[in-house]
């Protein structure tokens, strides 16, 4: 297994995964806080933990190393100076500036061991836990019915969103909504100060301090050369462009494909509507396939971004960009048990009274046998029963019919439009 960050595939063997086990932050969800914290319903913590533990167990049983957010951040801040730095950065990103409250929260958090501190940051800090004894600003006096001075992070178990591992580097994202911005800060500390998580050789393609939002559900690694990014409700065009520039100029990746999907909550990320499940297989939500526009970003000869719109259908784009072999429909028909059928009625050829096959050139001869075999019709005329269709041959090659004679019941030499009516009588 590679040390640190190494991801060149959505479908390769999973060696290591970063998870967050649902905790007290879920207990902060009430009907009054659902919208603020981006939830649609109130989950039951006990069941959520049981389901998570089963999921983690299945991963371990399949040889995956499972690591957790709380543990990895705690490793990153083992040094007391890092703990002070994290608390300060956390209060800044949370926009907590009142001196009294800030001092109280700092004291409250730094009196905890690193792991407990991280868990508390995720669970949320209640106003009652850090009440200031003496007002140092108006903020310390203003009454507020909201119980938290620092919101919980119930979305953290969607660990894909705050960051994305791409190649030998990582994105640390500027999240779209205020409720999720602090999640990326924890990931940044892991990347900077936890050498079990990331090595000094690992690079960073995006930072939470960048100006435009981008989220990990919109970043898919399609191959060692190509990355896809969704232009969505949560990922901006400028964010995708900044990421593409940093990635292409500083790595071996050759192209970024941008998928422009509808900006609705139902399609909030690319990975909710488009998923790679095998090297040549993808699932896609039917409602985005029609309006989907795809663009490409590459580098020009000066190392600057070059942009283009791709007009082909998505399946053709993927086949071309990923250098996928063409689908062998004959093999597919046999695998699925689909018999050869007529174009107009889609009726199996074996049910017809007669079928006519044109032989335009010698190379078509083997296709005749393929058609008969796929239809379930015996190849040789002598082996056909009364219920099998009559197989007629025509076209330029039947002027020398003898090589094909064993496979046809009759052959029509000459102009078919003139002689066929008489032959059928």
Please characterize this protein's 3D structure.
The protein is α/β, with parallel strands linked by helices and 425 residues long. It has helices at residues 45-61, 69-76, 80-93, 99-110, 114-123, 138-141, 181-193, 237-250, 286-289, 314-321, 329-336, 365-375, 416-424, and strands at 16-19, 65-68, 125-126, 148-150, 163-166, 169-172, 203-206, 219-221, 226-231, 255-260, 274-278, 281-284, 293-299, 305-310, 354-358, 390-394, 410-411. The strands form six sheets. The chain has a five-stranded mixed β-sheet. The chain has a three-stranded mixed β-sheet with strand order 5-6-7. A three-stranded parallel β-sheet has the order 15-16-17, with no helix packed on it. α2 packs across α5. The model has no long low-confidence stretch (mean pLDDT 91).
What is the helix tally? 13
Return Rg in Å. Answer: 32 Å
The CA-CA distance between the termini, in Å, is: 74 Å
Overall pLDDT: 91
What is the subunit arrangement here?
single chain
- The proportion of strand residues reads 15-25%
Task: Return residue spans where pLDDT drops below 50 for at least 5 consecutive residues.
Answer: none
**In which order are the strands of the major sheet placed?**
8-9-10-13-14
Shape: elongated
**SSE arrangement, N to C:** EHEHHHHEHEEEHEEEHEEEHEEHHEHEEH
Biggest sheet features: 5 strands, mixed
What would you say about this model in short?
By secondary structure, this protein is of the alpha/beta class.
Write the layout of secondary structure elements.
Layout: E1 16-19, H1 45-61, E2 65-68, H2 69-76, H3 80-93, H4 99-110, H5 114-123, E3 125-126, H6 138-141, E4 148-150, E5 163-166, E6 169-172, H7 181-193, E7 203-206, E8 219-221, E9 226-231, H8 237-250, E10 255-260, E11 274-278, E12 281-284, H9 286-289, E13 293-299, E14 305-310, H10 314-321, H11 329-336, E15 354-358, H12 365-375, E16 390-394, E17 410-411, H13 416-424
Parallel strand pairs: 1-2, 6-7, 9-10, 15-16, 16-17
Antiparallel strand pairs: 3-4, 5-6, 8-9, 10-13, 11-12, 13-14
Helix pairs in contact: 2-5, 2-7, 3-4, 3-7
């Amino acid at each position: 297994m590679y040390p640190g960050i190494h991801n060149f595939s959505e479908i390769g063997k999973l060696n290591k995964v970063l998870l967050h086990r649902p905790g007290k932050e879920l207990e902060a969800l009430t009907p009054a806080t659902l919208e603020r914290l981006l939830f649609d319903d109130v989950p039951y913590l006990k069941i959520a933990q049981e389901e998570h533990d089963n999921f983690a167990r299945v991963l371990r049983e399949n040889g995956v190393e499972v690591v957790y957010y709380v543990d990895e951040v705690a490793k990153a801040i083992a040094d007391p100076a890092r703990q002070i730095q994290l608390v300060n950065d956390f209060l800044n990103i949370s926009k907590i500036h009142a001196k009294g409250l800030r001092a109280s929260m700092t004291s409250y958090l730094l009196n905890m061991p690193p792991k407990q501190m991280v868990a508390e940051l995720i669970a949320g800090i209640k106003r009652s836990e850090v009440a200031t004894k003496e007002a140092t600003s108006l903020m310390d006096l203003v009454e507020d019915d909201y119980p938290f001075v620092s919101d919980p992070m119930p979305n953290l178990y969607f660990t894909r969103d705050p960051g994305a591992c791409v190649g030998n580097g990582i994105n640390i994202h500027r999240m779209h909504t205020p409720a999720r911005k602090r999640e990326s800060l924890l990931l940044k500390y892991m990347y900077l100060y936890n050498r079990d998580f990331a090595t000094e050789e690992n690079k960073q393609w995006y930072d939470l301090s960048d100006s435009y939002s981008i989220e990990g559900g919109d970043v898919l690694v399609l191959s060692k050369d190509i990355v896809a990014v969704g232009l969505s409700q949560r990922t901006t065009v400028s964010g995708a462009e900044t990421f593409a520039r940093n990635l292409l100029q500083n790595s071996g990746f050759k192209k970024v494909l941008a998928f422009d999907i509808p900006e609705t909550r139902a399609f909030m990320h690319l990975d909710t509507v488009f998923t790679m499940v095998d090297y040549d297989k993808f699932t896609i939500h039917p409602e985005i396939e029609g309006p989907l526009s795809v663009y490409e970003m590459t580098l020009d000869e000066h190392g600057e971004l070059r942009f283009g719109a791709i007009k082909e259908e998505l399946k053709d784009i993927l086949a071309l960009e990923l250098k996928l072999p063409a689908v062998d429909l004959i093999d597919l028909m046999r695998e699925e048990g689909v018999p050869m059928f007529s174009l107009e009625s889609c009726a199996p050829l074996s049910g017809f009274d007669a079928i006519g096959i044109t032989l335009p050139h010698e190379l078509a001869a083997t296709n005749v046998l393929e058609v008969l075999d796929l239809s379930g019709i015996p190849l040789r005329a002598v082996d056909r029963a009364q219920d099998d269709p009559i197989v007629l041959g025509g076209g330029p090659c039947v002027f020398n019919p003898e090589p094909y004679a064993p496979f046809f019941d009759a052959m029509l030499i000459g102009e078919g439009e003139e002689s066929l009516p008489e032959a059928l009588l």
